[in-house]
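Example 3.
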Amino acid sequence: MNQTPVIRLVDVTKSFGKQVVLDRINLEIYPGQGTVVVGKSGQGKSVLLKIMLGLLRPDRGQVIVLGRDISRISSRELTEIRLRFGVLFQGGALFDSMTVLDNVALPLRERTKLTESEIGKKVMETLALLGIEESRLKYPAQISGGMQKRVALARALQMDPEIVLFDEPTTGLDPSTSNEIYNMFYLTHERLHYTAIIVSHDIPRVFNLADQVVVLHNSRIQECATPDQIQRSRNPFVRELLDPTMGPVYLSEEAEDLNETT
Amino acid sequence: MVSWIERLGDEFLYLVEELGRAGIFLFFSLAGIFKPPYKPYAILRQIQFIGASSVFVIFFTASFTGMVLGLQGYYTLRQFGSEGLLGSAVALSLIRELGPVLTALMVTGRAGSAICAEMGILRISQQIDALECMGIDPFRFLLAPKYVAALISLPLLTLIFDVVGIYGGYFVGVKLLGTNAGAYFVSMQRSVVLEDITMGLAKSVCFGLLMVWICAFTGYMVGLMKRPVFGAEGVSRATTAAVVLSSVSILLWDYLLTAVLL
């Protein structure tokens, strides 16, 4: 791969008190790719996302986003960089005192000089793309969890971001709604070509979205490879994570190999 | 023994840090007031909430405070045969002390608690993080309108309190207990000078700032303190702490300001 990475983490270490949450993390994410970060709860997945966003600063190491080390820039520059991000929060983090329409329009109203009619047009396009234009006048509390996620995605995509972070996009949703969210992801990713970083433990389905899978365990990256390679990995931590949901894939293949040779 | 001293030092350092954080919070909030784009509509809505909706409570508190002052003042002054000074006694205690202090305490109970709870919920549902990720300054967007509204509303409410209280005293002293109406107002006119009123207004501006600062800061920091309490319980504790702390600070500052201004 000869492109420059949009996000590069170099030896990033972060601890809270005595607990080391991230230990010398090195990671490169290339434009247009989908990167999936998996790991059990409490292994620092969300902290990793917050560090990429500059919401937390690492104790050591560099976080280079779009060519700038965001742990060492002023808050003004950080704000500029964040404008090129879209974030889908775990709970959606919709502004619950605003309607769906106002939620999606907010970044445009606050951060651009577009007129109200231009904003309205752009918002309606996004809402139509995600199939939620019917609920535009409802409040987040009046729509279902799946709908809320779609609104959150619409809001995250409103500023045409280059990088979109998904924090557990399907946690707490039933399988069919999760599928819907994945379809939304495909649809928008294909159309807008953003770089996606998805934190999830919806294994194995989330692997379908990935060009690269990162397995976090014990505060370190155990493995970073394509979904295919991950599924064949022999790393015990990776197996521990994968086996309960996918079964020991490599064993059956080895068995087949054995069958063929005998 | 050593560990006890250690803990004492630790607590003290934490307190200093906390004060520093609160100071930075105040600085950012005040800076947020002057950052474009301005939010006149949001400021109006906050004035409606902090100011206009408090008028009834203030009216009620003020009339009974004035009435009880008239009653107490009448029986005390009668012992010296100087019922004629009732107007002066009622007006001076209201304008200098009770007006600003009781207004600030009532508004803390009504609006301060609401500000704290609102900030706390925005914090725990990641809405503040979401704003930051969209490159929207939460200080400008959420807090600046509250500060401006409190700084405008508190002095006005204090003036309403003073006037209503004076008429409450008039009602009891003159209408019920039969002191001379002319003497009531003339003694007031002779003793109250402009400095009394500016002192009362200066106090109410300070109290307004204290109230929003403490309540908003406590809410903003839910889950981020040294021994964090998260979620709904975090918000409920923060709200209690905010109301208590801000009421106590108002009384403390009242003493200090009186000592300095007199």
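The mean pLDDT of chain A is 82. The longest helix of chain A spans residues 175-192.
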